[in-house]
Design goal:
This protein is an alpha/beta fold. The protein has 2 domains: 145 residues, NAD(P)-binding Rossmann-like Domain (Rossmann fold, 3-Layer(aba) Sandwich); 159 residues, L-2-Hydroxyisocaproate Dehydrogenase, Chain A, domain 2 (Alpha-Beta Complex), CATH 3.90.110. Strands 3-2-1-4-5-6 form a 6-stranded parallel beta sheet, with helices on both faces. A 3-stranded antiparallel beta sheet has the order 9-10-11. A two-stranded antiparallel sheet has the order 7-8. It binds nicotinamide-adenine-dinucleotide and (2S)-2-hydroxybutanedioic acid. The site of (2S)-2-hydroxybutanedioic acid has 12 residues, from helix 8. Belongs to the LDH/MDH superfamily. MDH type 1 family.
């Protein structure tokens, strides 16, 4: 099996550490590079390097180590940045996380411009457009290789659908597209398209609305349960490891379908949108349309457009303003 070099940026954090462990266990990973500003990061690398799997693992700490960490990487996964506390929206993280993502993607543009880049840092609806603008400014943007990771929304939807289906289907056998973005009402699960077909046929319209709301608010459910101690980390690491496996299979030549937040023309006026995409060796080789929507889903799509467009525009404006400030300095 071909092996790949994978980097985790933000590797010492709540998501970064368990994600790095799961990647150390992935036989498609030959070299695992861990990067974080936290001084513990080389130690996290040593710790994981003792796991008896074939890959090597090295931890890099501090800003000077970013380029050595990234050089030669095929896949870069970014969970760097601050998480929410109760009462905050994901957009409340923008002021800190936008700058973090900008700096890290500038490193990718220099050191591994052909890598697949998977962004977890919130607000994903804005950080992915930020990454795109940085890659464009450096002349290395390939829209097929940039992804916002929305896999946790799909993982939750699979799990919650299986609960509602009263044991007629296992969570891992549920197929459900979750489209739109990754924040509140912009998360739109298409329950009318669930497979196996009919597994939710006993649900009333009120049940469908409640299930949709639970999927949309699941991140907040975790934030409140952790009561100031952060947001989803373990389920996110699990979801990101699934997405990473799909990327590595695609890089190996397989064709894999995943939902992801990508550069898109699926919905007019929204340059980034999550939907099913076909991953192949060059990245997102096809971005699938939405298929038939129920009237409730159609209304949800109408409702999410303004918020998602605002978040995309905010990311683009952040990079323009930073470039303007740099030029006049
Ligand atoms: N996309 C999703 O579905 C999803 C799910 C859960 C969390 N998140 C987001 O993931 C991010 C991380 O969450 P967490 O719980 O792991 O947070 P955390 O605070 O536990 O870890 C974040 C890590 O990032 C590191 N970091 C900060 N600035 C950095 C920089 N400039 N370069 C490299 N590393 C840096 C920190 O040192 C820390 O180790 C948050 O923004 C959170 O909202 C997204
Ligand atoms: O909810 C959050 O702030 C973290 C993440 O986006 C999630 O969906 O769990």
């Amino acid at each position: 099996m071909k092996g790949f070099q994978v980097a985790v940026l933000g590797a010492a954090g709540g998501i970064g550490q368990p994600l790095s462990l799961l990647l150390k266990l992935n036989a498609r990973v030959s070299k695992l590079h861990l990067y974080d500003v936290a001084p513990i990061t080389p130690g996290v690398g040593v710790d994981l390097s003792h796991c008896d799997t074939s890959s090597t693992c090295v931890g890099f700490a501090g800003q000077d180590a970013l380029i050595p960490c990234l050089t030669g990487c095929d896949l870069v996964i970014i969970p760097a940045g601050v998480p929410r506390k109760p009462g905050m929206t994901r957009d409340d993280l923008f002021n800190i996380n936008a700058g973090i993502v900008k700096t890290l993607v500038e490193g990718i543009a220099k050191a591994c411009p052909n890598a697949f880049v998977a962004i977890i840092s919130n607000p994903v609806n804005s950080t992915v457009p930020i990454a795109a603008e940085i890659l464009k400014a450096n002349g290395v943007y390939d829209k097929r290789r940039l992804f916002g990771v929305t896999t946790l929304d799909v993982v939750r939807a699979r799990r919650f659908v299986a609960e509602k289906a009263n044991g007629v289907v296992r969570p891992e056998d549920v197929d459900i597209p979750v489209v739109g973005g990754h924040a509140g009402k912009t998360i739109l699960p298409l329950l009318s398209q669930v497979a196996p077909a009919g597994c939710l046929s006993q649900l009333s319209q009120a049940d469908v609305q409640a299930l949709t709301a639970r999927i949309q608010d699941a991140g907040t459910e975790v934030v409140e349960a952790k009561a100031g101690g952060g947001s989803a980390t373990l389920s996110m690491a699990y979801a990101a490891a699934q997405f990473a496996e799909s990327c590595l299979r695609a890089l190996s030549g397989e064709s894999v379908v995943e939902c992801a937040y990508v550069d898109s023309t699926v919905v007019e006026g929204l340059n980034f949108f999550a939907s099913k995409v076909k991953l192949g060796p060059t990245g997102a080789e096809e971005v699938f349309g939405l298929g038939p929507l129920s009237p409730f889903e159609q209304e949800g799509l109408t409702q999410l457009k303004a918020e998602l467009k605002g978040s995309i525009d905010k990311g683009v404006a952040f990079v323009s303003a930073a470039a303007g400030a740099h030029a006049s300095a």
